[in-house]
Amino acid sequence: MNDDATADGMRPPSIDRLARSIADTGLPHPLLVDAARAAVADGDPSDAGQRARTIAEARARSLLVGVVNATGVLLHTNLGRAPWEGVPGTGATRYSNLEMDLDTGLRGSRQDRAPRLLARACGAESAIVVNNCASAVMLALAALAAGRGVVISRGELVEIGGGFRIPEVMEQSGVRLVEVGTTNRTRRSDFETAIGDGGVALALSVHRSNYRMTGFTETVQVADLTGLGVPVVADIGSGLLDTACPWMDAGPPSWLEGEPAARQTLEAGADLVTFSGDKLLGGPQAGIIAGRADLVAACAAHPLARALRPGSLVLGSLQELALAYLARDGDAIPFWRMATVPVDTLRERAAAIDPDLAADTTAVPGGGTLPGVEIPSAGLVLPGDRVAELRAGTPPVIARVTDGTTVIDLRTVHPDDDDVLRAALDRIG
Ligand SMILES: *Cc1c(COP(=O)(O)O)cnc(C)c1O
Question: 103 pLDDT exceeds 90?
Fold first, then answer.
């Protein structure tokens, strides 16, 4: 007898039989039963078997799986942004010393390792890690300015993708928004006046990650916000650690120009910086608050820090990433490897996959960073819209349509997956 039948005695035997007949889809039995029920409820019993199989296969495909990102968007928000899975421990099922100090055997802090290494890598006194950059900003504001004013330029009251709107975040943090200047022009004196009026706890500078202002504009740099008597928090967003990119032998790629980095923003006088783990940092989803030790400690002591803390998978993965940065080993960071691989290498790979389809393409950083920046790239270009067919394979290949052609961009594809592309092209013919 099977346990499920006894646990769910009301189920007609045909549902159970139907569910068992599609067991090869690999789903656990309760999900097969759901698929069978849906198929039976959906009409003609004679082809319920095929419908159940289709439903089960669709459900299996809708699970979180690895995909080949052939879009040329390096930080693709729908594909998990940066490609990183450096989790230490080599697969053995072990506990970790997440909150134990191995010297004393006493309780330790989960914030002692990856955050400390990241602080070291960007020249900060101290750092903590939370769930993402949105929560980093929220925590910093709540911990340092709840019930008081936070002064910010009107030109920086931005919306970052996914509904992250600075005015709303400030409201949720319980701080009073003190906006100064105008949309296109803000000066240091605007901040001085607002702070002089009293009740202001800090100055906030937000990188306009996903848009640009040109023309009759004037912005206040972080360096211009120092010496005003309140701490300066700079939300730089993307998590570039150092504009010099010392982890890459060839130095920074030219398209990175103008992107703020944690180290230089702190050197310019920011008391804290906040940034994402999965944009230009190239790691897992996380948010980092780095800077003055007393301010970081205040953030860590706030009740929200407990609610926003990351788990061992993220902290372990960030630790590996920070060690790679400290070792100046950009090759160990897939994002940087993909971002900087020479276009000639991509051309050779494209020609090896299919010389008839090989063509030059254009990749982009993505992830709400560096708007307008294009990175020369190469890949395979097919006539027509073939993206749904490519997406239907295993593993799914995610391509893009440009001007009536399907573009498979190799800049965002790991070389090991070139074989997958070859097979996918064979399959769709
Ligand atoms: C992307 C971004 C955020 C939000 O970061 P998440 O890690 O997605 O929460 C906040 N601020 C700036 C300036 C950003 O660019």
Answer: no
